[in-house]
Each structure stands twice: as C-alpha cells, then as structure tokens.
Design a protein that fits this description.
5 helices; Aminopeptidase; 5-stranded mixed beta sheet; alpha+beta; 156 residues
Length: 156
C-alpha cells in the first residue's frame, strides 16, 4: 500500500497551488465552468489565502496535488466562538480509497481548532453515498434542508 500523500495548508504565496486545487475540484465534481473557467486574478486568490477566515488544504503526491479541501471559519454572534464550514472536499479518482479524505479532515480539525473553531460542519448531497459514509464515520449526522436564495431577484 502506498503512503498517504502529504497535506499542507496553503499560504498567501501558494496561488499556483490553489489554482491546481481548483482543477482537482473541477475534475472530481465534473464542473469545469465553476472551478476553472472564470478564476479570479492572482491578487484576489492571494488575499483569500491570507485571510484567517479561509482555509485551503492540499494533498500532494510528490509535486502533484491529488486532493484537497476548502473551508471557511465563521465567527458566531451568540457566543464568542467560531465554527468551520467545510465547503469543498475532493480527491482524484486515482487516489481514492486510501484514507486521503480522512487525512484532509483530520488536518482541517487541527487547523480549525488553531483558528478558534469548536466544530466543523459539512453538507453532503443526497445520493453521494461515499461522502455520506465518510462524514457519518467522523461526525454526527443532522438531516436538514438547504435553500439557495438568489440575491439578484427580489421575491415576488
């Protein structure tokens, strides 16, 4: 069995790596339009990586990024604490079933705690059985409804 690739938190100077990670998301989610077609300028991505409320962790197999995640640290208003929202997590097909997603989440747990978060929360789509199985092993499942509210069109 091959070793689990190295996971690293991307820093403000790692814009090239963040772009490579966006390519991994595009491939894994089959969504080139969202992740690759209209990427922001380097300055935007560098500022995002420098923001302590954003975290990107990439998994490297040698020099190549083969997986990763992106998350947001959210300051709470009801208590002086933070939560971490795991927004995206993907591993290339060639590197799945090796414990890499779990390793990425374990790294995020340490990073989220260092940034003041007390919990990580994540969504999974119905029918995405591998993601649901992974998150069920690592956390407590809550069945909720998710709504996207378009900000461009006011309600009728």
């Amino acid at each position: 069995m091959t070793a689990i690739p190295t996971t690293l938190v991307l820093q403000s100077t790692d814009v090239k790596s963040l772009r490579e990670l966006l390519g991994v998301f595009a491939e894994a989610f089959e969504d080139h339009a969202s992740y690759v077609a209209r990427q922001p300028e380097d300055a935007y991505l560098g500022a995002l990586l420098a923001n302590p409320l954003f975290v990107a962790i990439a998994a490297f197999d040698g020099p190549r990024i083969v997986g990763g995640l992106a998350g947001y640290v959210l300051p709470k208003f009801e208590q002086p604490r933070r939560e971490c929202y795991l927004y995206d997590l993907a591993v290339l097909d060639s590197h799945r079933r090796r414990g890499l997603a779990t390793a990425l989440i374990e790294h995020l747990k340490r990073e989220a705690a260092a940034r003041g978060a007390y919990v990580i929360f994540v969504q999974a789509d119905l029918g995405d059985d591998p993601a649901i199985a992974l998150y069920s092993r690592l956390g407590v499942r809550e069945d909720v409804l998710h709504f996207d509210i378009d900000v461009a069109d006011p309600p009728a």
